[in-house]
Amino acid sequence: MRARLVVVFLVPLIAVLLALGGAAGWSAARSIQQTFYTQQLGDLGYFVTTARQSLLAGSTAVFDAEAARFQEVYGTQVAVFDLSGGVWAASDIASSRPLSETQGEQVVQALSGRRAETPTPAQPWVVADLSLVEPVFDDGDVIGAVMISATGEAARVAIARQVTIFAVIAVVSIALGIGLVFQLARWVLSPVRRLDEAMVAIEHGAMDARVDVDTGPPELRRATQVFNGMADEIERVVARQQEFAANASHELRNPLNALLLRVEYLATGLGPEWDGDVEETRQEGRRMTEILETLLALTRSGRGDSTFSAVDLTALAARRAGAWREVAAQRGVTLNADGGDAVLSVTDRMIVESALDALIDNAVKFSPDGGVVDLRAARDGVECSITVRDHGPGLTPDQAVQAADRFWRGADGDDVPGSGLGLAIATDLMRSIGGDLLVSPADGGGLRVALRLRDGRAE
């Protein structure tokens, strides 16, 4: 964003400065060029008067002195031609140099009565060496011609000096503009940067992160105030949720402990044939205790710490199938767990079990009487999965995409008890350990839901 803001301000600024500098340089160069040509015409008019007096007097003494002095001071060569086109008088250097073809044509035209014309080059920075020829009149008759030859070196140096000055001014102005634009961008974007830092801090659990409203444009100060108000509300909501979860989990511990004690008490009066059921009850009680402890830790720290260890997903699926088998049997549903080779994954056992329970519960509820639900663990490279496949009504591909959304329920599930949160909760659980949940229609009807563990966690 900062780069875009700098470009938006900087490009027009540079364009304006270059346009102004170019226009000023063009005007200065044109002025120097015109001054040079005007000066040569003035000098030519002066020597026409001197040459008339010398020609009428028949003496070159006055003209020679003026021409020599003028060439010494300004480096401009002056020559006077008689009616035959020959050099009648000239400065020393001018008399020794032959005329060019252009100069010869100019002399012929001047002796015919044509006056000199000022050249008009298209580019203002072009100042070529100049030769001008003017006829000398006496009572309307041409009695000779005067030619001056001036070098444009001084004008070219002056133009180069002016262009250099304007270029330096433009560069300095652009540098100052760049510094000003960066300072402006920093002033405008500093609240945005602080907002971004505060949002990142809140994302990482620092719910008390806020942004000062002292700096920045008024519009962004208003946005900062709104953000702080939103953060306050989020902090209050999260605090209430954590308080509720802490209270609920704490209140559940006492009846759970009492229930486990009663199970132990009842177990003393049962025969050996009940040992398996009693042990399964103990395991479920211990699992519920672990869930409550994790919930309490989450409410205290604001972020749960997953405990990763090597887990046999095949054994885990078989164990959860056994725990749900009696519930499924009451609904006329058979649970089958593939007892194949071990599938090892480094993951959080409790989270995977909780997510798998949500899938099994969902599959059992939507399976018809006499239906079968299959559980299978598999490994594909570095990815492990547990798949729950039922033979219920199933979903269309479009419905399967929405199945993991919160509170979503299919049209065929209105008469089935539930809140539409099972798959959504399972999805959140899997994402917390770097996995995901995939819902897809099964071949031959029904639904296939897979818990996938990847990103290097699978072995």
Descriptive report:
The strands form three sheets. The protein has a five-stranded mixed β-sheet with strand order 6-8-9-11-10. Strands 2-1-4-3 form a four-stranded antiparallel β-sheet, sandwiched between helices. The protein has eleven helices and eleven strands. The protein is an alpha+beta fold and 459 residues long. It has three domains: 2-158, PAS domain (Beta-Lactamase, 2-Layer Sandwich); 205-305, Signal transduction histidine kinase, dimerisation/phosphotransfer (DHp) domain (Helix Hairpins), CATH 1.10.287; 306-453, Heat Shock Protein 90 (2-Layer Sandwich). One of its GO terms (molecular function) is phosphorelay sensor kinase activity. It is an enzyme of class 2 (transferase).
Explain the layout of strands and helices.
Blueprint: H1 2-57, H2 61-74, E1 77-81, E2 87-90, H3 92-96, H4 101-111, E3 130-138, E4 141-150, H5 153-203, H6 218-267, H7 275-301, E5 309-312, H8 313-330, E6 334-337, E7 344-347, H9 349-366, E8 372-380, E9 383-389, H10 397-402, H11 422-432, E10 435-441, E11 447-453
Helix pairs in contact: 1-2, 1-5, 5-6, 6-7, 8-9, 9-11
